[in-house]
Amino acid sequence: MAEAVGTAGQPSTRGEQDTAALVLTVDDVDAAYARLRARGVAFAGAPANRDAWGIRVAHFRDPDGNLLEVFSPLKK
C-alpha cells in the first residue's frame, strides 16, 4: 500500500505510514476520479491497474488525512 500511495520512502513507523484505509468499490474508477477531481479532491496519483491485486485503483485523503481508496475489479 505504501508504494501505491507514495509513502514507501518514509520511515515504517506508525506516525509515518497509514495503518488503515477506507476502501470503496465503484463501477468505474476513472469516472469516480474525474468527478472527485472536478470537486477539488487531490489524489496520490492517477488511477492505475494493480494487476497483482486484480483491481484498478486510485487513492486520496480526506481533510483529516485519512487514506481512502476507490477501486473496481479489472475487466478480463
Q: Your description of this structure?
A:
This protein has 76 residues and is of the alpha+beta class. It has a single domain, classed as Roll (2,3-Dihydroxybiphenyl 1,2-Dioxygenase, domain 1), CATH 3.10.180. Helices cover 18% and strands 29% of the residues. It contains two helices and four strands; from the N terminus they run H-E-H-E-E-E. It has a four-stranded mixed beta sheet, with helices on one face. A hairpin with a 5-residue loop joins strand 3 and strand 4. The radius of gyration is 13 Å and the shape is globular. The model has no long low-confidence stretch (mean pLDDT 83).
| Main β-sheet, spatial strand arrangement | 1-4-3-2
Number of domains: 1
Please, what is the average pLDDT? 83
Low-confidence stretches are: none
Element pattern in H and E? HEHEEE
Instruction: Report the span from N to C terminus.
Output: 23 Å
Strand content: 25-35%
If you compute it from the alpha carbons, what radius of gyration comes out, rounded to the nearest whole angstrom?
13 Å
How large is the count of helical segments?
2
User: Mind telling me the CATH class?
Assistant: Alpha Beta
Helix content range of the residues, please? 10-25%
CATH architecture assignment: Roll
CATH topology assignment: 2,3-Dihydroxybiphenyl 1,2-Dioxygenase, domain 1
How many beta-strand segments? 4
Structural class: alpha+beta
Main sheet specs:
4 strands, mixed
